[in-house]
Amino acid sequence: MNDAFTRLRCDTGISMDRLWVENRWTHLKKLRRPFWASRNSMRNIGGPSRQWLQEFDYDIEALDLSTERGHLNGRNSGHCGLNLAYQIAPKRIVLWGFDMGRGPAGETYWHEPYVWAKASSGNTPAAEYARWAARFLRPAEQCAQAGITLLNASPHSQIIGIPRVDPWSLLT
User: Fold this and answer.
1) What is the greatest pairwise CA distance in the chain?
2) Which of 10, 29, 37, 142 is most buried, by CB atoms within 10 Å?
């Protein structure tokens, strides 16, 4: 999601953040790797369709993950990414970097702040992170009902109700 896609080795990226897509558009075009962008995030970007780009609609109020292709529910890019993974229906989904809060020393990002952010402290207030974290309970139920193991490999995550796993144990 967002900068993880441009900075790390990722097969597919996703964002519902209009400012992020607009500010990373030149880089995304160079990468030409599969990328999902919300229609809202693409509203100021014109031009022909691109084979590597899939636009999606979303509902930020829906608690359930969507099963409709091209529709990914969630209040943030990570939540929409979980919805995309759910639609693919793997045996296991691992949440990496789903902290839903600041880092242990108050860090806003794992990388330098975005130049378009209001301040180096980021645009997301603590209360919003808490609301985001609480919205993972229903998706966790849906994954369990679908026979998908959902794990959280984010040591400092504020999400409850999803089993945590040591991220290093998944890399061996």
Assistant:
1) 44
2) 37
Is the confidence at residue 118, as pLDDT, over 70? no
Cβ 20 vs Cβ 41: under 8 Å:
yes
Residue 109 has pLDDT above 90, yes or no: no
Give the predicted TM-score (pTM) of the model: 0.89
Asked whether residue 10 carries a pLDDT value surpassing 90, the answer given is no
- Indicate the average pLDDT of the chain: 89
CB 16 within 8 A of CB 77: yes
Q: Quote the CA–CA distance of 98 and 62 in Å, as a whole number.
A: 19
Cross-strand bridge partners of residue 15: 37
Q: What is the pLDDT of residues 136-161, one digit of tens each?
A: 999 999 999 999 999 999 888 899 99
Do residues 71 and 87 lie in contact, with contact meaning Cβ atoms separated by under 8 Å? no
Angle between helices 137-145 and 77-88 in degrees, nearest 10: 10
For 31-76, what is the HEC assignment? HCCCEEEECHHHCCCCCCCCCCEEEEECCCCCCCCCCCCCECCCCC
DSSP 69-130: TTB---SSHHHHHHHHHHHH--SEEEE-S---S--TT--S-SSSPPTTSSSTT-S--HHHHH
Instruction: List residues bridging with 92 in a β-sheet.
Output: 149
3-class DSSP state of 144: helix
